[in-house]
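[User]
Um, tokens okay?
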Amino acid sequence: MKHLVLVFLATALIFAVGCESGSNASSSGSDSDSDGDSDSDGDSDSDTDSDSDSDTGDPICDELEFDIDLTPVALMLLQDVSGSMFPSNWNQALPALNNVINAWTGSQVQFGLDFFPDGSDIDSSGWNCGYTNPVRQDCGAGTEAAILADLNSFSDPNGLTPLACGLTNFLNTAYASGCLNPAIDSYVAVISDGGDTCSACSGYSGTATSMGNLAAALYAQGTKVFVIGFNYSSAVLDAIAANGGVPAPYNVPLDASDTTTLQAALNDIVGAVINCIYDINITNEVDYNSVNFFFIDSSGTETVVPYDEDCSSGFGWHWIDPLTHEQIEFCPDACDLLQGGDVEEIKGEFGCPQIVPD
């Protein structure tokens, strides 16, 4: 199932063992029954038995481990490497990209990396405007190290700004099959310091109308587009963001002018695609009215996330379908913590009275 959003920064996503066990059951008390009979031959017999069968002690919370399945989210970083990026803009962008990828390593987000044309294809005027090379790094689990190595070894931004050519590649799902996997949410984040300055690519020119149509075509196939204008704003970037299928406030370009603001914009985007709906797989017999969840931060502090069927309290969780119990969703305020990277671990417990909002 496709989900709107990942998460969050998480290092351990296995739901832990439940409540501590209470005392062992003990037995006390007695009951007895007797019978006597007499018959015509004059003998009589009787039998008596007694047994005890009563339990005392604290209620015992069952212990159960179950997994939370993080639905991956694919996020392709499509970076402008035109001549205007070098050296100042590139030197500002590079540490921001490094910091964001390092910060979200191991999260639900599976990163990919691609560049605008880097000189592989030269048009008749001598400028690089086409791009036929394979994708630099497709999305997938554990791609961060390869992306960082590529980023930090690249040192030659050059040429014009073939934005249309960079984006049209993603109309071909075979170009980056990991990022464009229809089974998961797929996003492209465009980082550009200029509008398109090349000729038409695959029928799309660099005009605002054409680029808006391109973004709409990507959205129609299931790929949503974010836009960051790096020291640049234009109607072209506006049109891409407006038609890329992402919700407000991301349906307009995010502005960035240096390492700090670019890093903040990228973190906003990663947080926006983090998923607060989770598939769970419980194979044991459980009482679904006695399941509790806790958020654990980096200091080990546990915060109760109460069950809130209609999310009226804002901070809670509920079953997506209370009949199937296959998915849970964290309510908006709890989701904000997940998306902000403030949760290191989610713990679930089974068998104790369900915690509900006060």
